[in-house]
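Margin note from the TA: students keep mixing up input and output lines. Inputs are the sequences; the output is the structure of the whole complex. Example:
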Amino acid sequence: MKRLSIPLLAIVALPLFTAACGSGPVVQAPGAPAASTASAEDKEWTMQNKNYASTRYSGLDSINTGNIKNLKVAWTFSTGVLRGHEGGPLVIGSTMYVHTPFPNIVYALDLTKEGAPVKWKYTPKQDPKVIPVACCDTVNRGLAYANGKIFQNQLDTTTVALDAETGKELWKVKQGDYKQGQTITAAPLVIKDKVISGVSGGEFGVRGFVTANDVNTGKQVWRMYSTGPESEVGFPGSEETWKGDEWKRGGGTTWGWYSYDPELNLMYYGTGNPGSWNPDQRPGDNKWSMTIFARNPDTGKAAWAYQKTPHDRWDYDGINEMVLVDINIKGQPRKVLANFDRNGFAYMLDRKTGELLMADPFVVVNWATGVDLKTGRPIENPEKLTSSTKNTKDICPSAMGGKNQQPVAFSPKTNLIYVPTNNLCMDYEGVQVKYQAGQPYVGAIVVSHAGPGGNRGEFIAWDPTTNKKVWGVKEGLANWGGALATGGDVVFYGTMEGWLKAVDAKTGAPLWKFKTPSGIIGNPITYIGPDNKQYVAVLSGIGGWSGIGVAAEIGAEDPTAGLGALGAFGDVGSFSNQGGVLTVFSLQ
Amino acid sequence: MTKSTYTIAAVLLLVASCAFGADAKQFRVCADPENFPSSNRKMEGFENKIAEVIARDLGEPVIYIWWGQRRGFIRNTMNATLKEGRCDVMIGAPAGYDLVRTTKPYYRSTYVFVYRKDRSFQLKTLDDPILKKIKIGVHLLGEDYSNPPPVHELAKRGVVDNVVGFDTFYSAQNPPSSIIDAVASGKIDAAIVWGPTAGYFVLHQKIPMAMVPIPSAKTDLPFAFDISMGIRRGDDVLYDRVEKAIDRNRADITKILKDYGVPLLDRKASAK
């Protein structure tokens, strides 16, 4: 096998971190509490990524570096569903809300009672045909809460509002048609009186859109598309980057996370890969696929849009979450949007103007040698272009991304962003007979494999002021679970083997771990229970793209199954089995 | 009969204990519920008919596990999480399709040009200069940016701007027939379609249509494929039984394919 020309990123030693800390850039996430003091809002966990800035940081510090060795299981709860459990629970007052993959059950658990019994359970009535007809895997990334209501997106594109006290359906609307390949897996986000939802199905030419519905009635307020004419996109520049009317099946789906800056009144999200044409059949930049959008949540109009990967050839689906941090860059205080993209670059943008401030690789990247900060365009490596009729070896990162949907955390105490990353490269090689819709065709074999070093994942701490790695903890499997940073200077993350791990926020030193019943691809949370104790909770349940081999019992004998995921993860089954369990921890 | 299949699917969990015993005698087929003329829930497709022929030969009733033939098809049928939801056989699988074990091929077909016979042009190869001028409809396949092989080769020849995509996420709103209907109505001048998909609709169109196999040049991807049955990997007993059943029923199977207008190529002549 050809050697990679780019060496493994050196693990930057501690002195750099100390230096960064000593120079003391003022780092504050909007809406986040002042450093090291837990605020009243830290008692609860009311949004998937904790706050509008998506920092996944809680000031709670009862559990800290000094006592975490005493962290033990307090109680557990089986969701009754197998398959991948992404996202995490919400805690509102003394109730915890837990969601499941399809059939998208919602449980309300009473935290005031021993063992947290079920207060109510909601099982949506989805057309049973959605499963055979729906395009994608059956994951769901969680619930949203506002004003006594729980909001949920369901696989068949239903958005529903439930009474948080009783679980009663208050309203529901259909956002799309699963018979056209549209599904929803993303969590909604409530901004003011609107609930914001995206759509999945990019592999099937679904034209991505974002919808705002009234929180009280479900009535659609606006819908904006990723591709097409300005009147439907809320921003110019898309239509002319497609041939003919191919923007109508242009992809750019919106299945990731949503952030919001109340001061600028802008919401942020990323769009996915362009439609299902082979790249040769969709010449042009294919805007606004692979794009970071900043939109006014009242009107849907975009203030700016920045395309990360024009004319995508690698499936670097650009939907990863946007973390909003206020930091000094080159001595200047900036309102920054940080995005760790599937394509391997960490982007730092001015979130008011969309100006690109920095873009540097956070994993091994060789499809591009860098990003031109003036034009914003990647400088592509002609040797790493893909084609289904040509062999291309060792493209890094793989289509699974330098980081996938698992969200990062940012601690205002350490000024670091904690990033669960994948160390995966891919080969597009040979030709293989494939089959779809009753039609045989010939496609490239996409095989993902471990990048340099052989470890498939690394949990890293990233300094957003310099756009450099500070430390990293190598993981055998890819990091497919999200991060949680706390005021106790403890950072939590789950692994595909099923470990929930805690490391020192400053050094990455391992502090604690526990093996949950199944692999973790969900996101840990923390809260204060009615007994005034701090708890940490995480869903385990292997699945999603990386865990599909276990979830569907595909053996490792076919490395190209699961869109190349099994080449890299054929052995997951030896570490973990299917499951669907919430595990809750506290100090004993 | 749709109702009975539904019921079978619905009570699958209940009967699983007996259905999955060592004595299970059911011919369990993985099929697309909405992909006529290949297969559908109403059992109208040629693959439904072929399944009946094989099952009758084996003396077993046909049970269907329905799933759209796209990313996740095998994962959710033959390799389904719950053993009760699994099936064992795909009636049409290209020879060498890795996710299953394919039998000896039982027919060979090809991608074809389809256009109205009353048009002033004739299409023979992808190098016909007229292809740069007329509106050509093609199917869009998902996954890994792969498309039907002739479409790749068209792009290589610089035929891009006048190509129109048709979805293959089939449903009532968007059936496989729509690309042939578009040729008939003049919305497009010609279509490039997989023969077995095109054949039935061409046969039943009121407007006479030409259906011409597309030859692939030396440097092109193949446009013709051998079609086998796909058997769940590991079930060697069933594999042998199905292969023998195919051999015993070749004449009946070929008749079904011809009745559905499937363009058949000589398997020996074209094997390379």
